[in-house]
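Q: Structure tokens for this one, please.
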Amino acid sequence: MEPQNHTEVSEFLLLGLTEDPEVQIILFELFLSVYLVTVLANLLIILAISSDPHLHTPMYYFLCNLSFTDICISAATIPMMVVNIQAQNQHISFTGCIIQVYFFFVFAGFETFILATMAYDRYVAICHLLRYTYVMTPRLCVLLILLSLLITSGVSVLHSLMVLRLSFCRDQEIPHFFCDLAQVIKLPCSDTLINNLLIYFVGSLLGGVPVSGIMFSYTKILSSILRMTSVEGFGMYISPAVPDSFRTATVASMMYIVVPQVMNPFIYSLRNRDM
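A: Here is the predicted structure, written as tokens:
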């Protein structure tokens, strides 16, 4: 195969959610408010847990890390979007795009592992109450967090390096409000087979293992609770079908990226007597 002539890409154009100036003003105010609430609410949870010795337990240790992760995920995506809307400039440099891909993958994957560890913690607390303090030791809790962060950081480095090896023929458009890896690897003029295989493999492994752990833990918890005389309530996440248009896909991904980070503090604290 003959080599293709190309110039290295210097920046991408993020198409965002809309090009309507009036709607962009509304989005600017909305996302800025959501970001401030997300940061403030999660910081309050971290401060409350850190300052109260009674909350220095495995469950609240994981919750503190979850709040920190929510702040980081929001910081990796929303501020740039808000700045771009305000500046009327949707361009992002190639380096900035790679950095955003890295940090988003680190903390998105890290949050999945934290939710899995929280599910395991509740499983031990409910199904093996007498062994709880023996199993969920402070050392184990720290090791679980460090191991999760190490795995997601390593995977993110791998994804970033695999993007750096690609050749982009010209400045191109990303149909998203941030550098989504799945959209970025659709743009190169070089072969992306390895990148796609890596995404599917890592996604299946790092997504499937924590989700399987969560499902196992809550299945056991549900089974134990159903043996009791009273049940207060449960909830579950429902995933919609994959949307057809990229605009709908962008809005759907926004709901997964932005909404959980602002809702988690209320979900985990408002109905919690200790908090």
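A few notes: The beta strands are 11-14, 91-93, 172-174. The CA atoms of residues 94 and 228 lie 56 Å apart.
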